[in-house]
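Quick one:
INPUT:
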């Protein structure tokens, strides 16, 4: 069975396909044939590789092509040896594997059954294709020293191929029905009436579900959507699978609303409110991660509190829970502080010296040859290097909160940083003593520190990305795929 799976993998990797025998089997059950338009030496190397891997049928298939194409003794001999040593064994092993696979066929379902049926069809077609190549080999290439004329048992697998394709087509139909049935059962279990949760308000008669109960419904719908998708992988458009997939995907999607972060720093010192932009950037970053079962949006209500606090009614978590508008969880947070640090390093003084050419003289050596000698001199300089830096750190905390019961599901403490570093220098003495980089430093003038507001904004942007990454690893990766 393992070799059959290897053959199937080769098919999927793009080897030459032989058309199916009239059955609607898609890309399943295709014969393996070596990549076309290669040389005899290439096919012999492939045969040797498959022989070492224990895939004798693939080895024989390559050797047959090599012998058919070979025009040199060495390549002819290599192909003959492979066929002489392994043809009978490959034939015997292949038929035995098919027999073994058939014996366990009735106990398999879904994709496993299709793989088994596909493996049987692939093996028969590969054997048949290899024998077709063997029949095309000129008789003079079958003469092998110390062995005589090679002969091969050429079998007709037409009937087996027809039956294998028929069985494969049935297996594909059964797999489509199998996954469709699983999806339907999961949707029924999920009780979709209450999973949609689109009103966001109390509905008379709505069950009092806990957060975990409602998320369990979502998980079952998500699993159902995957089953419908699997069904359509075997039969595109099977029954009403596309419609059921769309519904199950909608009901299996976790919806997150990112609320504007509360701002606890001194806003007047930085000239910009960052809470809404942080939430928006987190929402955008999460959407870009492109999880199939996740929907993220942002709302600009400022300052949703971790716990109920004084202030406008819409600034409370209770208000958001009562007006969740289809969302299941909220991302709320606080920008706790902005730290700005400016530093100037102690100047570094380097005493430099370098030997440089100051003159070139032409002279005649003892043999009368004209030559050039370099006159060198040691030059010196003192380089003073200065450095200044500025760092802005925006700190924040976040919580993922259930909008069903207010439970805190995940939390984190994150920072975002933007830095500025600048070096320059001055020198005394001979400029030639400086390296190219040192000269570039000496030519720079001191710059002022950057304005704080743009660095704060950039640090906040990085904070947003860091929060999105943390939320992904802590929560989204589990609910979104």
């Amino acid at each position: 069975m393992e070799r059959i799976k290897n053959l199937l993998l080769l098919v999927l990797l793009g080897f030459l396909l032989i058309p199916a025998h009239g059955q609607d089997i898609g890309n399943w059950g295709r014969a393996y044939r070596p990549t076309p338009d290669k040389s005899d030496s290439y096919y012999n190397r492939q045969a040797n590789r498959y022989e070492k891997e224990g895939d004798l049928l693939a080895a024989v298939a390559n050797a047959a092509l090599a012998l058919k194409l070979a025009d040199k003794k060495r390549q002819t001999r290599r192909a003959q040896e492979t066929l002489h040593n392994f043809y009978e064994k490959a034939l015997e092993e292949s038929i035995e594997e098919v027999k073994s696979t058939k014996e366990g066929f009735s106990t398999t379902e879904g994709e496993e059954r299709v793989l088994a049926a596909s493996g049987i069809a692939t093996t028969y077609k590969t054997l048949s294709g290899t024998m077709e190549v063997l029949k095309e080999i000129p008789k003079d290439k079958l003469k092998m020293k110390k062995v005589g004329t090679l002969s091969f048992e050429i079998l007709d697998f037409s009937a087996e191929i027809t039956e294998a394709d028929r069985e494969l087509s049935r297996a594909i139909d059964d797999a489509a029905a199998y996954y469709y049935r699983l999806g339907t059962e999961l949707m029924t279990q999920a009780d979709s009436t209450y999973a949609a949760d689109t009103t966001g308000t109390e509905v008379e008669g709505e069950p009092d579900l806990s957060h975990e109960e409602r998320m369990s419904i979502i998980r079952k719908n998500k699993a159902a959507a995957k089953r419908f998708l699997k069904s359509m992988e075997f039969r595109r458009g099977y029954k009403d699978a596309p419609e059921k997939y769309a519904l199950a995907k909608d009901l299996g999607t976790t919806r997150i609303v990112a609320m504007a972060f509360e701002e606890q720093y001194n806003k007047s010192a930085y000239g910009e409110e960052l809470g809404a932009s942080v939430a928006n950037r987190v929402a955008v970053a999460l959407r870009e991660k492109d999880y199939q079962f996740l929907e993220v949006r942002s709302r600009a209500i400022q300052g949703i509190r971790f716990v109920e606090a004084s202030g406008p009614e819409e600034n409370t978590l209770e208000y958001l829970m009562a007006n969740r508008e289809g969302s299941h969880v909220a991302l709320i947070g606080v920008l706790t502080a902005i730290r700005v640090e400016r530093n100037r390093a102690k100047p570094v003084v380097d005493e430099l010296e370098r030997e440089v050419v100051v003159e070139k003289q032409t002279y005649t050596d003892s043999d009368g040859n004209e030559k050039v000698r370099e006159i060198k001199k040691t030059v010196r300089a003192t380089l003073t290097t200065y450095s200044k830096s500025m760092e802005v750190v925006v700190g924040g905390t976040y919580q993922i909160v259930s909008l069903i019961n207010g439970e805190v599901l995940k939390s984190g403490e994150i920072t975002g940083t933007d830095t500025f570093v600048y070096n320059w220098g001055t020198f005394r003495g001979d400029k030639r003593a400086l390296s190219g980089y040192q000269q570039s430093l000496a030519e720079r003038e001191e710059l002022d520190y950057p304005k704080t507001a743009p660095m704060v904004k950039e640090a906040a942007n990085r904070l947003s990305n860091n929060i999105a990454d943390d939320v992904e690893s802590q929560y989204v990766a589990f609910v979104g795929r």
